[in-house]
Amino acid sequence: MFIDFFIGPYILNSTLNILDPKTKTINLWVYQFDMYEGKITSCLSIISNREESISLGEEKISNYGVLAFSAGLSTCLNNFRSHNHAITTITNINEEFKAFRLMKIVGAGLLATFFLVLLFNYFVFDYYNSNYNSLTSRLTEYQGFLTNYEIQKNDLEAKKALLTETGLLEPTKISYYADRIAASLPKDINLKSFEINPKVSKKNDPKTIGFVKGKITIEGYASKGSIINNWMKTIEEYDWVERISKITINSENESNNRVAGFTLDIEIK
User: Fold this and answer.
1) Could you tell me which residues come within 8 angstroms of residue 251 by beta carbon, excluding any fewer than 6 positions away?
2) Least confident among 15-29, 114-128, 169-183
């Protein structure tokens, strides 16, 4: 079985690339080759029994074995060229595998980055959502405080208006007047009520209660009408009394021994 064949010693061409560039002449037993710039320039037929060492790459080979080495090297190179397509296919598969592996690495990196971004966004959202819920709760609480404040304020204003209307916030001697009237009360007179700044219903709004400032209304009864008249005279003598009027409600009543019921309206200066 022939693998390959060559005519003459030119099989040496397969080893020229690894031949020492300084080599000028090669003696191969029956041939002498002259070399120039890595190429054979001449071939002479000689007869030489001298054995020499020729440098091929990093190896030194006897001149008797150079032709056999060249033939073997040429055969290996030819086999390599015959398998070049298979090597190209393997190379392509290797490149595709590298690209696929790179894609997997890049994809895993992108997926990890996307996951970290989502995780970061979750923590940021959770932080601001917690703050939002806390602030909303505080806002609701403060709104309750504000509503309660408005209720208390309106209640205070209403009470203040009531006290202003009744004249209790103004400098007055109401307690002094009441004490003087009580001190002058005869023992034969019994009082049913004693109102300072008595309340009245307003004409335009009957449901709204008003107060008459600078006025004292007294209701009671006595055994004799003269006793009431004398007490009125005593009250009129006070310098702070502007005017006093008496309204008799009922006359003699034997069932309860009441002679006369009365109502006194005392206007203060």
Assistant:
1) 259, 260
2) 15-29
Residue 258 has pLDDT above 90, yes or no: no
Q: Model confidence over 147-168: pLDDT tens digits?
A: 999 999 888 888 877 777 666 5
The type of residue at 228 is: I
Q: Determine the longest span between alpha carbons in the chain, in angstroms.
A: 187
CA quadruple 16, 18, 24, 25: dihedral positive or negative?
negative
Tell me the β-bridge partners of 56: 19, 59
The token duo for 113 is 């980055």
Amino acid occupying residue 201: S
Cα distances (angstroms) measured from residue 21 to each of 26, 37, 65, 117: 12, 7, 19, 63
What's the rounded Cα separation, in Å, for the pair 16 and 14?
A: 6
What DSSP designation does 46 have?
-
The torsion defined by the Cα of 147, 153, 159 and 164, in degrees rounded to 10, comes to -150
Question: What single-letter amino acid sits at 59?
Answer: E
| Cα–Cα distance for residue pair 250/253, rounded to 1 Å | 8
